[in-house]
Amino acid sequence: MAKIKIIGGNRLNGEIYISGAKNAALPLMIASLLSEEKLVLENLPALADVKQLKAILKNHGTQITEQEQNPKDESSIGKTVSFQAKIISDICAPYELVSEMRASFWVIGPLLARMGEARVSLPGGCAIGTRPVDFFLDGLKQLGAKIEIKDGYVIAKAPKGGLVGNRVHFPKISVGATHTIMMAATLANGTTIIENAAREPEVGDLANCLIKMGAKISGIGTHVLTIEGVKKLHGATHRTLPDRIETGTYAMAVAMTGGEVLLKNTNAKLLQSALDILIKAGVEISEEKNGIRVKANGAGLRPVDVETQEFPGFPTDLQAQYMALMIRSAGVANIKETIFENRFMHVAELARFGADIKVDGQVATVSGVPQLRGAQVMATDLRASVSLVIAGLVAKGETTVSRIYHLDRGFENLEEKLKRCGAQIERVND
Ligand code: UD1
């Protein structure tokens, strides 16, 4: 199995092109199921999760065509791919295809809205908590669906004339449930009001794409989305938002090693709270026309406490990377995880580098140490795995990270991007 080998100690200098966001790409691709016409998506990242979702969509009957890229044009690194579900040939999303990735469950919204029925396996994904689907099912029931759970599958049926718009109130903010109910509501009869909706930029990206497809949605960027159902959606072309988690990850990598890197094709508004924390910790950050410049001297940063929050707060998907950064801070930082109940699995792995971290319930207390030692570590989930890479970049000696299939789910060309900025990092096969 492939591993990543890192020799720590090099500073990062240069430019990194930020890919399209995985968490935007997945719901955008799923939205193609809502129309028989072509949805063309630009700036799609080449990731294992995107590949897996293509297989799921093909199983439903979607035709997928990749456009030729110009290798000389950096802005065309992200792929342009068209998705056309002229007919839905299968309303079932089987266990074999959806068990690896939680987002694949979201197909239930469009399938139910367009076909009146769906049979979708209960989801899998990163083991960072129980991650139930109660909000999805309650929301779909509010739109009139009858739901049954049998043999690990959710079987959903719409009323005869289709889903019916209604008020849907989520007890807690959920990105996936917001995506799913919003997509389902675009083709429902009447108006749906989603209260306590997620405000994440990826939700706005999906809403904007749906509007281009003919949907009527207002309240984007707020906690209340109003969706007026329409009879049909049509084709459209849409560019995927830059990946704010990838942006934050590389900003933290530079903060860790020291150096100066321009993160291109991204935008500070997508992750202002995380950038503000980095600035407080002593990192220099400046906005440029089409990117963010990150500069750090590589000495221990100031410790700054962090609490994960829904957007616009500090993202849970940057918590592990931030913890890696704080293990070399000049003091003690408390990191509180409020979104997922089991998202500290990287703590045991970071300890192998010599980190001093104590966990008490939802809070990890990180006491900075001056020097990390290279170690053999194992990736436990998607974002946690990249925190081990960040630690490896400054650890003295050699680090090997195993189970890197987690990394391939969410970080496009990670080794290449870091290597071009001076890191000693490579993929090796056992
Ligand atoms: C999405 C992101 C993931 C990110 C997370 C939170 C994608 C592909 N994934 O995941 O990277 O970490 O948002 O920003 O976009 N919950 C319930 N019942 C439900 C649904 C959710 O209790 O029916 C809970 C979850 O267990 C969790 C919280 O709500 O504690 C937030 O989860 P949610 O926003 O749904 O996460 P995802 O959409 O799965």
Spell out the key features of this protein.
430 residues; alpha/beta; UDP-n-acetylglucosamine1-carboxyvinyl-transferase, Chain; 2 domains; four-stranded mixed sheet; 14 helices; 24 strands; elongated; binds uridine-diphosphate-N-acetylglucosamine
Tell me the layout of helices and strands.
Elements: E1 2-7, E2 12-17, H1 22-31, E3 38-44, H2 48-59, E4 63-66, E5 79-84, E6 92-93, H3 95-98, H4 108-115, E7 117-121, H5 134-142, E8 146-150, E9 153-157, E10 167-169, H6 175-186, E11 191-195, H7 201-212, E12 216-218, E13 224-228, E14 236-239, H8 244-257, E15 259-264, H9 272-281, E16 284-288, E17 291-296, E18 306-307, H10 319-326, E19 332-336, H11 346-351, E20 356-360, E21 363-367, E22 376-378, H12 382-394, E23 398-402, H13 405-408, H14 414-419, E24 424-429
Parallel strand pairs: 2-15, 3-14, 6-7, 10-11, 18-19, 22-23
Antiparallel strand pairs: 1-23, 1-24, 3-5, 4-5, 7-9, 8-9, 11-13, 12-13, 15-17, 16-17, 19-21, 20-21
Helix pairs in contact: 1-2, 1-7, 4-6, 5-6, 6-7, 8-10, 8-12, 10-12
This protein binds uridine-diphosphate-N-acetylglucosamine.
What does this structure look like?
By secondary structure, the protein is α/β, with parallel strands linked by helices. It has two domains: 2-19 and 242-429, Enolpyruvate transferase domain (UDP-n-acetylglucosamine1-carboxyvinyl-transferase, Chain, Alpha-beta prism), CATH 3.65.10; 22-239, UDP-n-acetylglucosamine1-carboxyvinyl-transferase, Chain (Alpha-beta prism). Helix content is 30%, strand content 27%. It has helices at 22-31, 48-59, 95-98, 108-115, 134-142, 175-186, 201-212, 244-257, 272-281, 319-326, 346-351, 382-394, 405-408, 414-419, and strands spanning 2-7, 12-17, 38-44, 63-66, 79-84, 92-93, 117-121, 146-150, 153-157, 167-169, 191-195, 216-218, 224-228, 236-239, 259-264, 284-288, 291-296, 306-307, 332-336, 356-360, 363-367, 376-378, 398-402, 424-429. Helix 6 (175-186) runs parallel beside helix 7 and helix 8 (244-257) runs parallel beside helix 10. The longest helix has 14 residues, at 244-257. The radius of gyration is 22 Å and the shape is elongated. The termini are close together. Uridine-diphosphate-N-acetylglucosamine (UD1) binds next to helix 1, helix 5 and helix 6.
